[in-house]
Amino acid sequence: MTVVDSGSTAPVGASRRDLPPSMVERMTLILDAFDGPKTRLTLEEVAGRTQLPRSTVHRILDQLVRLNWAEHASFGYGLGRRAIGLGGGDGGHAQIREATAPLLHELHMQTGMVVHLSVLDGSESVYLDKVGGRFASRLPSRVGGRAPAYSTAGGKAMLAWMDPEKVDSLYPHRLNQVTESTITDLPTLHQELNRIRQRNGLALEHGESVRDVSCVGVAVRSFDGPVAAISLCGDSRTSQLKRVAPLVVHAAREATRTLYPEAETPRRSRKTVAVPEKTWSSEALDRLLAVESGQWV
């Protein structure tokens, strides 16, 4: 007997089994096709594992991606944060914290500033770790706390390496104002993210999340995109971002090497852009940080 997929006009031959009668069963088959949170499969591989028609798999995966049950990147589909959360995982957060802990401590010892490790959860930055001295008590950030990603250096560093369309989908409405310096519209946010990309991923923030606090942040990236960010924060009146910026770049690069050693080798269709290994001169840093006249240097 020939079965016709309701989402496709093409007949399905005898090599395909009868389709499960409910959408829930089809979704379950697709999610079960992934062996774990790090598994990446192409559309054809998911169809092969589930024995569902390709058109059906594509339609359902699109819905799962929109609802964060699955994610889609340049190297295929994977489980989304909702699916990973139900499975009892933490999205690899424990591994990220373990890999970056000595780097965060070293950054704090070198600078005396507050160090944050953050990840994206939808449109928000979530703080996985915070290291700091007396100044840390002035910052409302806490481990497990959240902030609008567009208002923090770490959040903007991660948003800069996402597709603009994805950023648009995260913020369909007006951006909420946290301080008088917060970016509050998408066109301005996209201009800022473009400047960050032109600075090889170095993000700056001046009083956008907390008044009189300046931060510099860099994303930790895998082949699929940003996975975390390391940032330094200090008093705007005394912090020397020009001095500490290379230290943050170095820490993020070391975290990437630890978590994703394969990222150091070329790969087909690679989307991520490696941070240059060269030491930045004082003149280069002046150009790097002089985004707006008088604002940073």
Summarize this structure as a short list of keywords or feature phrases.
disordered N terminus; 10 strands; 297 residues; Arc Repressor Mutant, subunit A; alpha+beta; Beta-Lactamase; 10 helices; disordered C terminus; 2 domains
Task: Please provide a written account of the structure.
This protein is α+β, with helices and mostly antiparallel strands and about 300 residues long. Residues about 1-15, about 265-280 and about 290-295 have low confidence and may be disordered. The strands form 3 sheets. It has a 6-stranded antiparallel sheet with strand order 7-6-5-10-9-8. A two-stranded antiparallel ribbon has the order 1-2. The chain has a two-stranded antiparallel ribbon with strand order 3-4. The N and C termini lie far apart (about 75 Å). The chain has helices at about 25-30, 45-50, 55-65, 80-85, 95-110, 155-160, 165-170, 185-200, 240-260, 280-290; strands spanning about 5, 10, 70-75, 75-80, 115-120, 125-130, 145-150, 205, 215-220, 225-235. It folds into 2 domains: about 20-85, Winged helix-like DNA-binding domain superfamily/Winged helix DNA-binding domain (Arc Repressor Mutant, subunit A); about 95-290, Beta-Lactamase (2-Layer Sandwich), CATH 3.30.450. A hairpin with a 6-residue loop joins β8 and β9 (about 215-220).
